[in-house]
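Aim 2, interim progress: modelling of the zinc ion-bound target.
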Amino acid sequence: MKIRKLAALALAVATCWCAGATGLVPLPVSVRETKSLFRFGSAATVYVLDPQLKPLADYLAGYLTPARVVRPQGDLYKRLELTGYISLGLLPEGDTLPAEGYRLRVLPEAVVIEGRDYAGVFNGIQTLLQLLPPRALAGNFPVSGVCLSGLEITDYPRFSYRGMMLDVARTFVPIEDVMRFIDNLSHHKINRFHWHLSDDEGWRVEIKSCPELARVGGFRGGDSPVWPIYGHWDEKYGGYYTQEEIARTVEYARVRNVEIIPEIDLPGHSRTAGKVYPEILCANPRVNTAQTAGYDRRNVWCATREENYALLDKILGEVCALFPSEYIHIGGDEVEMDQWSDCPHCKAKMEAEGWTDGIRLEGYFMARVTEILARYGKRPAVWNEAMEGGGLDPGARVHGWENRKAGLEAAAAGYRTVLMPNEYFYFDMKQSPLEPGLTWAGVVSAEKNYSFDPAREGFTAAQMECVEGVEATFWSELYASQEHDYLDYQTYPRICSLSEVAWTPQPRRDWADFSRRLSTAHLARLEALGIRYRTPPHTTPVRRITPQVSFSSSIRESTSNPYSNIERYRHYARTAVSCRPGDWFLYSFAAPVDCRSIELITGYDFLPRGIVTRGRVEVSYDGVRFERAGVLEKGRITVRPSAPVRALRIVSECTGNGETHVILYPPRVEPR
Ligand code: ACM
Ligand code: ZN
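Predicted structure of the complex, ligand included:
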């Protein structure tokens, strides 16, 4: 008898999950453990105490099985007197919890989630899902007999804007993956998805009144006027989102408390739009395509062509109708002003206004586009450069990306401000020096991101009021040349870190504690969500030798990065113009090099731009006769020589590479 009781007890313990709140991400404002224990019955009953919460009850029920959603009528709720249920309700009017806040109580008879608003209930549900075993996040988690230890959580966000940007222009991300990305953000209480829908290399949103924009501009290569880059060549690739897909995604995000803010990047970063509608570009009599083997790289909307504003009215009118967000992001970054100063019409406008700098013309352009948005009931969100032209609408939201000062200046000028200095928030940067990623903003580890505290940036109290929050970015130049899971790899666990920068009160934040929660609890949740997150690589440094080499080419060198960089095994070298068929690059060794392999790299390391997009490679063992060694793949080749090598030669078979130059690295020679 005694043994049977013990066995029953052991079984009960085995089905209990009493992990408590020790592994929550982001860490809540306040957690109090109590002595009580909650146990699910044979099913999860979710009570909806307010009709607007029904979608959230259905959402929660999707994670639990068996589950039923009950909307109590009259006093049915009281009469049922159930135990083991979850209730979703709103806090009474007058409760002082901030917007998006919630209280979650694990009581003996029920789990009670009360939100300040819909968003608060959603956030409470996310915390509840993290109180369950990690596999609950995979959905259909069998609840029967599962226990939770008693808790009282009071929680609300530090910032109202908790954002993540995804660039789908450089690399198209299929709609199902975008939805999955949004879902994963929402599990981290990130509530803004900034969708970068257009850029020089792609247009991704269907505009019914201008169908060519997406139908033509959504693809690069093949018969598209948009040249293929990023390592793909002679291959048509890309995609775009139909308006129906976008509407579905907006609704999907809304249920998950994620507002989508679309971006149409203007007036620069618009090469694709200019390829589809060349008339929108400046009437530039001096387009110089000699450097680019004939490819016209202009990418700025003419600021004085009146028809451009009519076209933008059509485009933005559709964008505004598609997205319910108060703000529409209209770009404003990195405008190549010389395209305006070379345009007779833009030049005349500047002279007439007495503007000596193109930035004032950008101010004019942004004001015109802001007027268009206003007609559709929207405000502009912009990159910080758009402030510099003067006259930016006081209702604009400024994204301070260039450096830390940019956010300070925006808040000092009284703009709603989102902080995202690249050195902390650009998740396209490397996570450690030996991993893939860009480096121009430095190495952005999760720890570096975590260390960002807006309150230490030097804002006055009044300026801090203007800071709506923080945002990280994933720019996708590299994604096109990487494996499918690169997006997950680059963004997780950095998004976990971002979630605490955005949500958790600073005094509660501690990197060591976050790392512990990440490794002991949260990575298992990412696993359950199917996220191919990054684990630190085990890299052994590669041994290399640097035999004396001389370098020459049929193309002249640039002055900034001369060919001597290659001979000195320094950094990359850069040509002065792009490559044409028959152009060659010769690496001659002073003495025969006996080695296991030699890797030749064209294009930036980890960024397949500036490559010789098509070319053959020849090897010489006597310095006179050359034989074929292979072809470049995405600008690279590893030659495994059969004898000591005297020289290697790359012979271009392509007309240009969409760039003004070719990049070449010193040979990477692996000894025997
Ligand atoms: C940007 O990174 N050009 C906003
Ligand atoms: Zn112009």
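Confidence is low (pLDDT under 50) at residues 1-14. The radius of gyration is 29 Å.
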